[in-house]
Design a protein that fits this description.
Largest sheet of chain A: none
Order of helices and strands of chain A: HHHHHHHHHH
Largest sheet of chain B: 6 strands, mixed
Structural class of chain A: mainly alpha
Largest interface: A-B, 26 and 35 residues
CATH topology of one domain in chain B: Rossmann fold
CATH superfamily of one domain in chain B: P-loop containing nucleotide triphosphate hydrolases
Oligomer: heterodimer
Number of helices of chain B: 8
Number of helices of chain A: 10
Structural class of chain B: alpha/beta
Bound molecules: adenosine-5'-triphosphate, magnesium ion
Radius of gyration of chain B: 18 Å
Strand content of chain B: 25-35%
Number of strands of chain B: 9
């Protein structure tokens, strides 16, 4: 575990020092600017529209950071040949993948926490509030970033960094746009078609599970605990599966 | 009886990229004894780095046998007592030498106090104390090479594998590194290194292996290799003659 931590920590430290990390500051100001600008014109405090857009914005920014920073890791280690002294250490390749994954989760969670804190600040000035729901939103956000980092780690075994980034963005948009549609097809079709769509539905990473936008915007009741635990379980299972597969493939990769 | 630290039997390795196949190693046999300095020489593309990557389990040979301390290189625990200095010294440029050594030390699971003591000694050894806390992106090639040497020693390895360790170093640093290698031998460490500096190889190695196009042409001490030939012949002229005979 100390080895995994060492890799993740080294990665975060490096990213913070590189100018790359300034993107976080830019995002932060965009979010802050948007929220305060909107808030200024709302007499009664934060409106639903601002909550809706603010939440979407912060999720999207965190997603972007998770994708771009994680996608860079393996390719740049291989490209710059820093991977060789690393692999010469008493470390399995599974551990390398896991360490990089943890680094990606750490860096995007740090960013997400900052964005979320800003959002919370404005959220508290508005109408219906639920701290429990807000807490759930935070947990789901972190889980979402775990899923995204695991997906990116997995695909960085096969495709270049830019292809990976593009692919994950497309995947995200597709899943957000089509998972309801897919559920509809499964419900209304029969036989083999239903089974095939069912399998596809189960295999797809359900990034939409983590989206509490509507609930937070309209200040609905918090989710029941069993839902939260199910989503946590789903994330752990899905990430373990992806990372094991990624490790398995990386182990067989000729470097 | 001397224990064998490295045993390589009939090693083959073929790189496959697309539909191109490069046979980098074609049946290489050698062994390295405990406490020995083994110099590995050969022209560019001979397969030295490939052999080293096999020793470290970075590449896996489908044929032949390979054991490091009687263990398989593909087992990550084998590398606990192995130090490696790669051919190209490239490290995380946004870390400092100290941070890099801490990171690697943690991967080895070295006790914190011991690690900090060792880092201090190593940075002194490679003459980098003054830049110990500077980002490596400002480092020259030779400085990176020194970092590379220091990181190879962070776990106080019993077997040190060095791929062209003196490339990019000035004559003073070179001499110093030779001295360190000799000291390590005196402490009972085993050293396997590749080099193009034949005079250097001749100077420090107990035994030398000459690799050419994926095959070992000769293995033995400088005296053994040169003994059969005329008096006063250098390893360099012997090497050149041997390679030219094959062309
Ligand atoms: N990743 C790779 N893909 C394809 N071929 C490779 C790869 N790495 C090495 N080779 C080929 O394998 C052969 C041996 O290469 P290797 O790097 O082991 O040589 P070397 O003895 O270390 O040479 P040098 O002294 O130049 O470092 C060469 O013909 C090289 O072109
Ligand atoms: Mg080489």
């Amino acid at each position: 575990m100390r080895a995994v931590w060492a890799i993740a920590y080294g990665m975060v430290k490096e990213l913070v020092r590189k100018k790359d990390f300034y993107v976080l500051v830019i995002f932060m100001f965009v979010l802050l600017g948007f929220l305060s600008y909107q808030n200024f014109f709302q007499v009664k405090g934060i409106s639903r529209y601002v909550r809706d857009f603010g939440y979407s914005l912060l999720m999207f920014f965190s997603f972007t950071i998770a994708v771009t920073f994680t996608a860079k890791q393996l390719p740049s280690e291989i490209e710059s040949k820093t991977i060789y002294p690393l692999l010469a250490k008493p470390l399995s390749r599974h551990m390398v993948i896991f360490g990089k994954f943890c680094g990606g989760v750490m860096i995007s969670t740090i960013s997400f926490t900052i964005f979320y804190a800003i959002f919370t600040g404005f959220y508290m000035t508005g109408g219906g509030k639920s701290l429990v729901l807000l807490g759930q939103g935070f947990i789901f956000g972190v889980l979402f970033l775990c899923m995204v980092s695991a997906l990116v780690m997995f695909f960085s075994n096969f495709i270049t960094m830019s292809a990976n980034v593009t692919f994950i963005f497309l995947l995200y948009l597709t899943i957000r746009g089509f998972s309801d549609f897919l559920r509809g097809i499964i419900l209304f079709s029969k036989g083999i078609v239903a089974t095939l769509y069912g399998i596809l539905y189960c295999l797809l990473p359900h990034l939409e599970f983590f989206d509490l936008r509507i609930r937070i915007t309209h200040a609905w009741d918090p989710l029941p605990m069993w839902v939260v635990f199910t989503v946590v379980g789903y994330t752990v299972l899905y990430c373990c599966m992806l990372l094991s597969l990624a490790g398995y493939i990386f182990e067989r990769k000729r470097l | 009886m001397q224990q064998k630290v490295i045993i390589a039997k009939n090693l083959y390795y073929t790189y496959e990229t697309g539909n191109k196949r490069v046979e980098a190693l074609k049946g290489v046999d050698f062994s390295v004894d405990n406490g020995e300095i083994f110099g590995f020489i050969g022209p560019n593309g001979a397969g030295k780095t490939t052999t080293i990557k096999l020793l470290l389990g970075i590449l896996i040979s489908k044929n032949g046998e390979l054991a490091i301390f009687d263990k398989s290189p593909s087992n990550s625990n084998t590398r606990q007592t192995v130090g490696y200095m790669p051919e190209i010294a490239n490290y995380y440029r946004y870390l400092t030498p100290v941070e890099l050594l801490i990171m690697y030390g943690n991967i080895f699971g070295i006790d914190k106090d011991l690690l900090h003591k060792r880092i201090k000694i190593l940075l002194e050894l490679v003459d980098l104390e003054e830049v110990a806390n500077r980002l490596m992106r400002t480092f020259s090639k030779g400085m990176m090479q020194k970092v590379s040497f220091a990181q190879a020693l962070i776990n106080d390895p019993d077997l040190l594998i060095l791929d062209e360790p003196t490339g990019g170093l000035d004559p003073v640093s070179r001499k110093r590194m030779r001295g360190v290698i000799q000291d390590l031998k005196e402490k009972g460490k085993t050293i396997f290194f590749s080099s193009h500096e034949l005079s250097e190889v001749e100077l420090v190695s107990d035994r030398i292996g000459i690799l050419h196009k994926g095959q070992l042409l000769a293995v033995g001490s400088a005296k053994d290799l040169l003994g059969e030939k005329e008096e006063g012949q250098s390893l360099e002229s012997y090497f050149l003659k041997m390679i030219e005979e094959r062309v």
